[in-house]
Structures are given as structure tokens and as C-alpha cells.
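REQUEST ID: PR-0412
SUBMITTED BY: lab tech R.K.
PRIORITY: routine
TASK: structure prediction, single protein chain
INPUT:
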Amino acid sequence: MRYPIRVMYTVRPATITDLDTLVHHRYAMWRDMGRDPKLLAIMEPAAREYFTAEVANGGYRGWLVESDGKIIGGAGIVISAWPGNPGSTLAKRAMILNMYVERDYRRRGIARALMETVIAWCKTQGFSAVGLHASDEGRPLYESMGFEPTNEMRLTF
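STATUS: complete
OUTPUT:
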């Protein structure tokens, strides 16, 4: 019988020195959802370019979880210009992305701690809502925290 081991961890802001980790989390997140590794290899340079620019200019805010000096998870917010939504006073919106916890550390409350950190930050910034795209594995957590499905659609080229 396996028993869960308590993990002591800290959540800290991501910086540009964490670029490799941010790219790794993006790749691993999609890999774990079954995406084609060939397509992920194509995506990696774009992710590196994005994080390099957006961490520096504040368009991406990230948080990482460390345990015993090792990064075991992370999540972030994309802040983009937006013409507002009903009930919002900001000309921008926030979307959660890059939510990832290393497989050996899952089901220990780390993802929830990350989400609580991200949500609290969004509230302090005055956002009236935050969105995300949920994986099948992540959906129960997000629903337990009050997230609801929306009517978003996509056309892939």
C-alpha cells in the first residue's frame, strides 16, 4: 500500500531566470495531455520567445513551487489588452495558463495552492474574472474552486 508523503513547499514569483522552467512546464503540460511531441518541438521556440518578452514587460506573471530546492510546479497569468466585459472596469483581461505540477508531486494540494495564489493576485489587481482552459485531469480541481464552463469555441488551421 502506498501512503502519500507530505511535501513542504514554498510558492514564489517566477523571474526571467526561470525561463527554462517556464518552457519546460508548457511542454510537459501539453505532453501530459497527449499532444504530438513533434508539434511540441515546433512550439518550444515560440514559448521561449513569448516568456522572454512577456515576463520582462509584465504581460506574463508566473509563480513557481519549490520543495527542497527543486521546482515541482508552476502556474501563470497572461494579461492582455481587452475592451472590457460586462461588470469589468479594466481594459485588460487575465487568463491562467501554464498550470503544471510534476507527476510525482500531484494530488498533494500543490495545484490548489498555486490556484489560490493566482486567484488572490487577480483579485488584488482588480480583475472581475479570470479564465483558463482545463485539461480533463485539472477540471475537477477548477470546478471545486468555482470555475464554470463558458461558450468559447475554436477554429484550428
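NOTES: The radius of gyration is 16 Å.
REVIEWED BY: pending
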